């Protein structure tokens, strides 16, 4: 490997843009997606069709001076992955190809940053020699050989957020399907039944007074109290009419 070059996604992205192999804006978006998500940068490039699988591997070989040895050409040895963290290999799409004493040879999905390779070496006390593989061949080999060996993550009662939202949705549906409230003084807000409108108190017709004015009563609506009985007409000379929520027409008559 060229000692002046460091394995990292930023350098690879810069070279791909300089060689006009991928649009720079798409490279920036792919880099941001890989940082914020779990899919590696090379896999995003290939999956989104921004560059060919082998073209990407060829660029990495040329940039870093590394040999190209995909798992389609060489068969990984079973003892190479013995004792390794399978979840770590799956997360970073690394295929253990062979092991020579303390030296572990791995095939990268085109490229894996130095920091990740260093973490693998320190976790197991090994020296790691990276080779350039391809995104698709690595993913296929891992799917066929290591997926079943990964330890499933069992969410605890406080960690399963999806269940929280599922239970919340179920509670909302249960409320929508619940029976309407019929107790006196309470109003059905979610799904009013047709009978509710039929059982509402009827509006009381206005009472004609001796002065020609009219007494207008408000129509009962949601949240209103039951209509009171008609008050007896008053003598206009003794203080005027008793009005309940007068309308604009009622105000003119009262005036």
What does this structure look like?
The chain is mainly alpha-helical. It has a domain at about 10-150: GMP Synthetase, Chain A, domain 3, CATH 3.30.300. It has ten helices and five strands. It has helices spanning about 10-20, 25-35, 40-45, 55-65, 85-90, 115-125, 135-145, 160-175, 195-200, 250-255, and strands at about 95-100, 105-110, 125-130, 205-210, 215. The strands form two sheets. It has a three-stranded mixed β-sheet with strand order 1-2-3. A two-stranded antiparallel sheet has the order 4-5. A hairpin with a 2-residue loop joins strand 1 (about 95-100) and strand 2. The longest helix is centred in the middle third of the chain and has 16 residues, at about 160-175. The chain starts with 8 loop residues before the first helix and ends with a helix.
Spell out the key features of this protein:
10 helices; 9% strand; three-stranded mixed beta sheet; disordered C terminus; single chain; 255 residues; mainly alpha; GMP Synthetase, Chain A, domain 3; two-stranded antiparallel sheet
